[in-house]
Specification:
It is built from 7 helices and no strands. It has a single domain (2-172), classed as Four Helix Bundle (Hemerythrin (Met), subunit A) (Up-down Bundle). Helix content is 79%, strand content 0%. With 193 residues, it is mainly alpha-helical. The chain has helices at residues 2-12, 18-43, 49-76, 82-108, 117-136, 143-169, 179-191. The radius of gyration is 18 Å and the shape is elongated.
Length: 193
């Protein structure tokens, strides 16, 4: 869905074609299917170590793609708030780099990160901020509110990052990896050599 979203969004500008609304719909659909996927995985015990790694990766890919296309569109429109968007984007990039480094350290420690309500809340608010920002291209008066929501989401994402570091990264593993996790760790070991 990431590629479809980016193509629809970028091809919609500068003429605000119907594809823009399709791009917004794809972004919302991606979020809703992610929520449904997580719910089903937990409800029916379909959680796998690979899913624990790939699901957050797909979420981050969609979020970063959305930010990139938003930045490109804001630059094309010579938006007066471009510096705010650049700052927010920079803060997200720094946070994501820290999260990837933490994830790599955890893999070396034979641990897989588990999401909880800190991260889920930050992701949900971030999604609302991105949706509002996408809408701001058609409804300009939304602009100060979307920035406030994005800022709150970024602040919460740093709180979640600190929480994950405290509760998972710096905490020793209390149980042994199961067979599926062990296979994942072995593949990671081979890739990192």
């Amino acid at each position: 869905m990431v590629g479809v979203f980016a193509w629809l969004f970028c091809s919609a500008y500068p003429d605000h074609a119907v594809r823009y609304w399709w791009a917004l719909g794809i972004y919302v659909l991606a979020f809703l299917t992610d929520v449904l996927d997580g719910f089903l995985a937990r409800t029916f015990n379909w959680v796998t170590p690979v899913g624990k790694l790939l699901d957050p990766f797909a979420d981050k890919l969609m979020a970063i793609t959305a930010l990139i296309v938003i930045l490109i569109a804001k630059l094309q429109h010579h938006d007066r708030m471009i510096w705010i968007y650049l700052t927010l984007f920079g803060l997200i990039i720094v946070k994501e780099i820290l999260a990837v480094i933490g994830g790599m350290i955890m893999l070396k420690q034979r641990k897989v990160a588990y999401s909880d309500w800190y991260g889920k809340t930050a992701t949900g608010i971030f999604t609302i901020g991105v949706v509002l920002t996408l809408l701001s291209f058609s409804v300009p008066r939304i602009e100060p509110w979307n920035i406030a929501v994005l800022s709150a989401a970024i602040g919460l994402s740093y709180v979640a990052l600190a929480h994950y570091a405290r509760t998972q990264l710096f905490k020793p593993r209390e149980d042994e990896p199961d067979a599926a996790e062990e296979r994942l760790f072995e593949k990671f070991d081979r890739l990192s050599k």
